[in-house]
């Protein structure tokens, strides 16, 4: 390795270490709040149908999956728009070094959770197990960013991961729920509890924080 190449390699390492000292909020608090509201509205609709019919709502076929994919798409687009506005305010590109690090960290668990969850619904018709996989993998994705994320996002990751494990244990130990003729109702309620209430609590905690959303210093 030449002297010039050696110097460039040292600069690359130093830059990498400096990047890891920064924090990056991959999930905008307003987008999390919007996702929470939509998730609670969808779960609330299912709960209202259960109350009206005195039990489980009618089997919905692929409606359950498409309903939550649409909520994911809407929330994702809003999140990207808000991140782009924040990046523009700081005079940085949307695809910054922080975003690249975040994508590298969250994509593996999100890919695994997405494929397994959709497969469980499409091929095994197991909605509760699918949403539990989504909850745990989403929590693991947030925890994968722990080295450069604000503490509020790391706490959210722990809440999703632990809550997903507790709910899985409760579901596995309850034969009445596992033997239901169809499980869209319980699955929707889990989505409302986790992606709904947890995201609303996260957004509220960020808004109520006395410190502004930092991008170059720890909260």
Description:
Keywords: Membrane, Transmembrane, Transmembrane helix. The chain crosses the membrane at residues 21-45, 65-84, 105-122, 128-146, 153-172, 187-208. This protein has 219 residues and is mainly α. It has one domain. 77% of the residues lie in helices and 0% in strands. It contains eight helices and no strands. It has helices at 3-20, 29-53, 63-90, 97-124, 127-143, 151-173, 175-178, 184-208. The N and C termini lie far apart (41 Å). The relative contact order is 0.17.
Keywords:
single chain, 219 residues, mainly alpha, 8 helices, 77% helix, elongated, disordered C terminus
Short description, anyone?
The chain crosses the membrane at residues 21-45, 65-84, 105-122, 128-146, 153-172, 187-208. The chain has helices at residues 3-20, 29-53, 63-90, 97-124, 127-143, 151-173, 175-178, 184-208.
Explain the layout of strands and helices.
Blueprint: H1 3-20, H2 29-53, H3 63-90, H4 97-124, H5 127-143, H6 151-173, H7 175-178, H8 184-208
Helix pairs in contact: 2-3, 2-8, 4-5, 5-6, 5-8, 6-8
Percent of residues in β-strands: under 5%
Helix content: over 70%
| Beginning-to-end CA distance, first to last residue | 41 Å
Give the mean pLDDT. Answer: 84
Q: What would the principal axes of the Cα set say about the shape?
A: elongated
Biggest β-sheet: count, sense, barrel? none
List low-pLDDT spans: 213-219
Number of strands: 0
Series of secondary-structure elements, N-terminal to C-terminal: HHHHHHHH
Instruction: Quickly give the structural class.
Output: mainly alpha
What is the number of helices? 8
* Count of discrete structural domains: 1
């Amino acid at each position: 390795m030449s002297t010039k190449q050696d110097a460039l390699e040292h600069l690359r390492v130093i830059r990498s270490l400096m990047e890891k000292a920064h924090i990056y909020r991959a999930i905008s608090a307003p987008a999390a709040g919007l996702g929470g509201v939509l998730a609670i509205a969808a779960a609330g609709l299912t709960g209202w149908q259960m109350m009206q019919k005195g039990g489980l709502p009618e089997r919905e076929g692929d409606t359950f999956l498409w309903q939550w994919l649409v909520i994911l798409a809407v929330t994702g687009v809003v999140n990207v728009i808000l991140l782009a506005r924040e990046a523009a305010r700081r005079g940085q590109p949307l695809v910054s070094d922080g975003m690249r690090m975040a994508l590298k960290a969250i994509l593996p668990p999100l890919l695994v959770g997405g494929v397994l969850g959709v497969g469980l619904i499409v091929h095994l018709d197991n909605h509760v197990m699918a949403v539990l996989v989504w909850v745990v993998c989403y929590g693991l994705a947030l925890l994968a960013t722990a080295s450069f994320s604000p503490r509020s996002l790391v706490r959210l990751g722990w809440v999703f991961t632990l809550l997903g494990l507790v709910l899985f244990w409760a579901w596995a130990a309850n034969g009445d729920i596992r033997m239901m003729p169809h499980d869209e109702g319980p699955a929707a309620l889990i989505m409302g509890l986790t992606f709904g209430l947890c995201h609303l609590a996260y957004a509220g905690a960020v808004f109520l924080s006395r410190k502004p959303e930092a991008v170059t210093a720890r909260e």
